[in-house]
Amino acid sequence: MIFGGFCLRIPSVMQLGSRRYHSKSPLYLVYFGSDQYALAHLQALIDRESSLKNYRIQHVVTANDATPVASYCTKTGLDYSTWPRGSNECAKIVASRVKDWQNDLARVHPPSIGQKQSGILGLVISFGRFLPTPLIAAFGQGCVNIHPSLLPRWRGPCPLLHTLLAGDTVSGISAIRLPADEHAFDTGPVLQQRAIQLDTRRPLTPSQLGDFLTPYSIEVMFEIIGRALTGNLSEALSQSALAKRCRLIPADAPRPNEAMGHVDWANQTASEIVRLWYCLSETPVHLTSPLQIRKPTSTASDAIVRFVGQNPVAVPLDDPSEASSRCQPNDLLLLQNAAYLLQRVPHEFPPGGVMYLRAQNQRNYPLVPFAFIACKPHVSFPKRSWLAVPSLHIRMPGARHFRPLTALDVYNGVLHESESRKLSSMYDLPHGFHPFSGFRSLSNPLTSKIEYRAPLRDTVIISLVNKVIPSDWNISAPSGLALDT
Q1: Which residues make Cβ contacts (< 8 Å) with residue 417, sequence separation at least 6?
Q2: What angle do CA 18, 24, 28 make, to 5 degrees?
Q3: What is the pLDDT of residues 386-439, one digit of tens each?
Q4: Residue ranges with strand state E in 148-220
Q5: H or E element at residue 394
Q6: Nearest to 43 by CA among 21, 75, 65
Q7: Rounded distance, CA 428 to CA 422, Å?
Q8: Which terms does the record give in the GO molecular function aspect (predicted)?
Q9: Going by DSSP bridges, is the β-strand pair 80-82/55-62 parallel, antiparallel, or unpaired?
Q10: Do 127 and 33 meet the contact criterion of CB atoms below 8 Å apart?
Q11: What is the pLDDT of residues 47-67, one digit of tens each?
Q12: Residue 16 burial (CB count, 10 A)
């Protein structure tokens, strides 16, 4: 059927007495999901459907025809519909169909005396659309959202990204019931949670974190299906109560904006900037900073730099493992030598300042193929942290387009040696050090918000495990909070 320019692919009638219904009615699911994370859960449901035989996927709803879920449904023949952004008709049509399906289900499998009709369960996983209350109310079993964070921390469309941005060492999975009244994103009562400890020594992208959390999330999803089959989805804990008992600060997880890509050299350490680079590498937002160019015959002007392409690395000032996971062996040796040399740079050297170094252990003393940028001091080291950048994209003053350059290209073709000589004298630097004024800081909202200055740590999760499920909240189905290490 065509509604307002989009195609809604929903079966016109319920196939009574055929493959859809059986003598013992299973739980019927309408699945809402869009991205790769959602697809992994849908595939798990399909893979186990024939063996478990206690649930059926009635229909799939996805954001548009370009999503991984839509491609999978097309390939496998699953019934699915699309929900274009901003469309109000889709929710009404799906709600109407759900009511029709439930009426048909009630006729084929009427509930026994004293029993409630099982109905249909809405399962929402990384869908990207807000389900209005009339649609939620249409489901006899209600709607459950499986969310990859420890709610109320990181409510919104990008919990994985913000988990990484904040440097949380613990993440988790929350199963929440979507309220059938007015509500905001990800605010429903918590049916189930599981906390998972993260290894933050290696920077991750959001999709890599999603891959790590997926097996835990799938396990929680099947536990929720088990509870739905026994009619045990009523017991839940409000997020306000959860936050109070566990000292969790509710935090939003919005989509990244341009300001989140600004580099604030004075208020972000090199490790934080590396983490930000990986977090934004899968988004349209780029790490951005203005580069001061001082020509001998003119006033200073700014080029705009985007840090894209090869990943930047935090110079391992006191811990070689900082760089080892993302470096080639030869580069790691160069960075370890650079760490020794950079300790000779005085603390007065400004954040955003750029330093080029000559290799001290190679013939002819070639330039090390990195631009080293001074950043905020690390908490465990008294002097500035340093970011090693192998390449970047630059738009020169007056130019329309960015062009890719290596760090050595920037030294040879953009910066000016006269400035380096002046700054070397000012900071009393030895031979082999080539300083430049470098980059100006831009304000980044991440540096001021409390949720990014107070990462979720293991001690908080221990408190969660001990206190979140009180003794008077007795749930027979698998539930509660578990810490996986």
Answers
A1: 434
A2: 70
A3: 999 999 999 999 899 999 999 999 999 999 888 999 999 999 998 899 999 999
A4: 170-177, 190-197
A5: strand 391-395
A6: 75
A7: 10
A8: methionyl-tRNA formyltransferase activity
A9: parallel
A10: yes
A11: 998 787 789 999 999 999 999
A12: 11
CA distance 139 to 95: 8
Rounded Cα–Cα distance for residues 72 and 48 (Å) = 16
CA distance 386 to 155: 33
**d(C-alpha 230, C-alpha 477), whole Å:** 8
Residue 163 in 3-state DSSP? helix
- Report the alpha-carbon distance of residue 17 to residue 371 in Å, rounded: 70
Can you list the pairs that 130-134 forms with residues at least 24 positions away whose Cβ atoms lie under 8 Å?
130/185, 131/32, 131/91, 131/178, 132/91, 133/179, 133/180, 133/181, 133/182, 133/183, 134/91, 134/92, 134/95
SS3 463: helix
Q: Are 371 and 410 in contact (CB under 8 A)?
A: yes
Q: pLDDT tens-digit profile of 72-85?
A: 999 999 999 999 98
The two tokens of residue 63 are: 């954001």
Domains of the chain: 2-254+458-484 (3.40.50.170), 263-442 (no CATH)
What digits encode the pLDDT tens for the residues 79-137? 999 999 888 899 999 999 999 998 888 887 776 655 555 689 999 999 989 999 999 99
Collect all residues with Cβ–Cβ distance below 8 Å to 212 and sequence separation of at least 6: 196, 198, 204
315's CB contacts (< 8 A; 6+ apart) are: 270, 322, 323, 335, 338, 339, 342, 372, 385, 386, 387, 388
Structure token digits, residue 475: 């749930």
Instruction: Judge whether 349 and 384 are in contact, CB under 8 Å.
Output: yes
Token pair listed for 167: 């440097």
Report d(CA 198, CA 206) in Å as an integer: 13
Q: What is the C-alpha to C-alpha distance for residues 483 and 485, in angstroms, rounded to an integer?
A: 6
Q: What percent of the chain has pLDDT over 70?
A: 82
DSSP run (H or E) holding 124? strand 120-125
